[in-house]
Specification:
Shape: elongated
Order of helices and strands: HEHHHEH
Radius of gyration: 29 Å
Length: about 200
């Protein structure tokens, strides 16, 4: 009986300790700088791979871009085949002057339609991409404010290759905690909106 009770207590203590450890990793340790100022940063590239909403949005836009590219290539191939086939027919003397003129007009219509498709769909996808990026940026900005309030961070910097920051002390890196916070924040937004069960 004593061994069973001891085993249960040990297991409970270990489980409680694990929960405390998990809580500690979600709260970033941000060093206090002169005059009590707390600075932290996160790697921008990590959001692309760690923030689930970003990954879904990027995947959706990428899928549309690939579909557009495939359709564009299909239409270009169709036009090329039309031109080659009729060019061969013209060289072998199978077309009258009237037929040749009609084929040239048809080729111009097809080229114009291809150009219109490329312009219209390309612009549409570019606009959707910019809108998605704007939504993602706003979500990150809002979540960043909440993250800073929750963790009493005064300044949260974005660090990325080609950025203006050359070096930051790794002790100020809160990337992991911020990405976790973003995912929790997004899940809360979706739950509040009734999008997730």
């Amino acid at each position: 009986m004593k061994k069973t009770t001891l085993l249960v207590l040990t297991t409970l203590l270990f489980a409680c300790n694990q929960q405390v450890e998990k809580k500690k990793t979600d709260t970033p340790h941000v060093p206090v700088i002169k005059n009590g100022l707390k600075l932290a940063y996160y790697y921008q590239d990590s959001l692309k791979t760690g923030f689930e909403f970003y990954k879904k949005s990027d995947s959706s836009v990428t899928k549309k871009q690939l579909q557009f590219q495939a359709e564009l290539e299909k239409r270009q191939k169709s036009l090329q085949e039309f031109l080659l086939t009729n060019d061969e027919r013209a060289k072998s003397g199978q077309l009258s002057g009237f037929e040749l003129q009609n084929i040239q007009q048809e080729a111009q219509r097809k080229e114009q339609a291809l150009y219109q498709y490329q312009q219209n769909e390309g612009t549409k996808i570019e606009k959707e991409t910019m809108e998605q990026l704007e939504v993602i940026t706003k979500k990150i900005e809002n979540a960043g404010k909440e993250f800073c309030k929750k963790n009493q961070i005064d300044v949260l910097l974005v660090h990325g290759s080609g950025g203006q920051i050359n070096y930051i002390d790794p002790k100020m890196n809160v990337t992991k905690e911020f990405v976790n916070f973003l995912n929790e924040y997004q899940a809360k937004i979706e739950k509040d909106a009734g999008l997730k069960k």
